[in-house]
Design a protein that fits this description.
The chain is 29% helix and 23% strand. It is α/β, with parallel strands linked by helices and 553 residues long. Helix 4 (90-101) links the parallel strand 3 (81-85) and strand 4 (105-108). The N and C termini lie far apart (50 Å).
Length: 553
């Protein structure tokens, strides 16, 4: 059997949980229609609770319709981009759907971005309108981007009445519109806009920039509806309209935006909103609102498993504890299970797949694997040099095909062309991730192709070394990179953060000796550097790009 036939046979289907469909039909509707349908099914059901204030689906839709009317009146047209420079808040959700109701595409910006980074995304996306937090307005004003419309808002506007008494707003100059003023002035009538789900863009998220300048990822309404529909199908235990979801993952990131926010609002569930991932507040809300769904990232689970208050929450009540956005170390999963009695389910997605592509079946989790392809998704492994498919158990580049896969990169035709390859009648998207598929159809992550270290002609996965380092009892965090060396190609450098009580007590030689006991000699780090912390991306990944930049500076 040819290698490609093994992948096309989808061996993973045999391990799908009962009730998960092998294939799925994607509705031919827009994101706007999907959201409107959810609000019509149960208009009085709470959609969001924000610092104790409940907002119903009817109220959320009315606010989105009013803002859509205002945006259209102020000049936002179909096909344009509206930037969202907001923390998690009711206003993010309102502005998100309001922009879509105008026929525009949203391009969320990380609230921690500097003025320079904000300007880059505004100019690259061509956004001429932005909805921003009042405390972030100064960065908008200083960035120098040409904008036609700025709408500001304060998170306090949606606090309970008593909390609003003690809130403050940031002053902004004339010519800038306050979101609440627009909601009061404009009727709850969204503009009549015709949307073609297959061709009209809904979102333009930007890649994290771990490999260079961030790129805009073109996602149509069909891409997002496909991702939401599939995400809603893979956990049969979850019941639409009855789940309570802790929503602290940042909505500007594709994981929080699609897998969490869009997915669960379209299912009619309740989101418990947090402006940031405050551990105490999350654990308190988990009990107060009887949460049933918890989405996190590996660094959060790493932190929570050792937190003094973790046991105060009833983790066994949760129907789903999911990890994404980075590789979950097996030791973290095991420690978590011992501490909480619950199981972390690992999944995988990327901006280019609208946040979803793989997940472990809920009843058959394989530690160390990011799971099986989701319904409707075709996945395979290809040699990144020859572009030929490799047999199962061999490593290669993960390639994907499915209704949620992006259209390409915004205004980058050459990079878009390189991102896809036609093989066996299928248009495959190259992910740049080095993986292997085992005999049961589960996929295992090795590294980013660009993070491979070349030492004396040998290819070394940085993740292999990092996994060993994370197993050291005194290592809290680690990042491994290659450092250019004319004699050998690259030398291996490990940057290590020790546990607090171990700092100054563990030596470079001890770390090397530990690695030597578990790795082939050529994989043992040549250089070990100790630091107090490591640079992270917006979702908590160790940024190897920044480590390389710092080393080469």
């Amino acid at each position: 059997m040819a290698a490609i036939d093994t992948y096309l046979a989808k061996p993973w289907l045999a391990f799908y949980q009962k009730g998960v469909p092998a294939a799925i039909e994607i509705p031919g509707r827009s994101v706007v229609e999907a959201f409107n349908e959810a609000t019509e099914r149960a208009p009085e059901r709470p959609a969001v609770v924000f610092h104790g204030r409940f907002i119903r689906y009817r109220e959320l839709r009315e606010a989105a319709d009013r803002l859509a009317n205002a945006l259209a009146f102020l000049g936002v047209k179909k096909g344009e981009r509206v930037a969202l420079y907001l923390v998690n808040s009711p206003q993010f959700i309102i502005a998100y759907f309001a922009a879509l109701k105008c026929g525009a595409a949203v391009t969320p910006i990380s609230p921690v971005y500097t003025s320079h980074e904000v300007r880059y995304q505004l100019e690259d996306s061509g956004a001429r309108a932005v909805v921003c937090q009042d405390i972030l307005y100064d960065k908008i004003a200083k960035c120098g981007a040409a904008l036609d419309l700025v709408v500001v808002t304060n998170v306090n506007e949606y606090l309970p009445a008593l909390k609003r008494l003690f809130s403050k707003s940031t002053a902004v100059p004339g010519g800038v519109h306050w979101l609440q003023d627009l909601l009061k002035k404009h009727p709850p009538e969204a503009p009549a806009v015709s949307i073609d789900p297959k061709t009209d863009l809904a979102a333009l998220p930007y890649t994290g920039g771990t490999t260079g300048h961030p790129k805009g990822v073109m996602l149509t309404h069909h891409n997002l509806v496909a991702a939401q529909t599939i995400a809603a199908s893979i956990f049969p235990a979850l019941q639409p309209g009855r789940e309570v979801v802790l929503a602290f993952l940042p909505f500007f990131h594709i994981y929080g935006q699609v897998v969490l926010m869009l997915n669960h609002l379209c299912q009619g569930n309740l989101l418990v909103l947090f402006t940031n991932a405050d551990t105490e507040a999350i654990l308190e809300a988990m009990e107060r609102y009887q949460a049933t769904v918890f989405y996190g990232v590996p660094t959060l689970y790493e932190y929570l498993k050792d937190h003094k208050d973790t046991n105060k929450a009833n983790w066994r009540r949760l129907k789903l504890v999911l990890s994404g956005a980075d590789t979950l170390h097996v030791s973290t999963m095991q420690d978590w299970a011992r501490r909480t009695g619950s199981q972390i389910i690992e999944g995988f997605g990327m901006s280019e797949s609208a946040g979803v592509s793989h997940v472990n079946p809920l009843d058959r989790v394989k530690p160390g694997s990011f799971g099986c392809p989701i319904p409707g998704m075709q996945a395979a492994v290809m040699d990144p040099e020859t572009l030929e498919f490799v047999p199962p158990a061999q490593t290669g580049e993960l390639v994907l095909s499915g209704p949620n896969v992006m259209q390409g990169y915004w205004q980058r035709p050459e990079e878009s062309a390189r991102a896809f390859v036609e093989k066996n009648g299928v248009r495959w998207m190259r992910t740049g991730d080095i993986v292997r598929m085992d005999g049961e159809g589960y996929f295992h992550f090795y590294d980013r192709a660009k993070d491979l270290i070349k030492f004396k002609g040998l290819s070394i996965f940085a993740k292999d070394i990092e996994d060993v380092l994370y197993g050291h009892p005194q290592v809290k965090a680690a990042g491994v990179i290659g450092v250019a060396d004319a004699a050998v190609g690259q030398r291996i450098k490990a940057i290590v953060v020790l546990q607090g009580d171990a700092r100054g007590k563990v030596s470079e030689d001890e770390i090397k000796a530990y690695c030597r006991r578990q790795l082939a000699e050529y994989k043992v780090p040549h250089i070990v550097e100790f630091r107090g912390e490591l640079p992270k991306t917006d979702v908590g990944k160790v940024s190897r790009r920044e480590l390389r930049d710092e080393t080469n500076a």
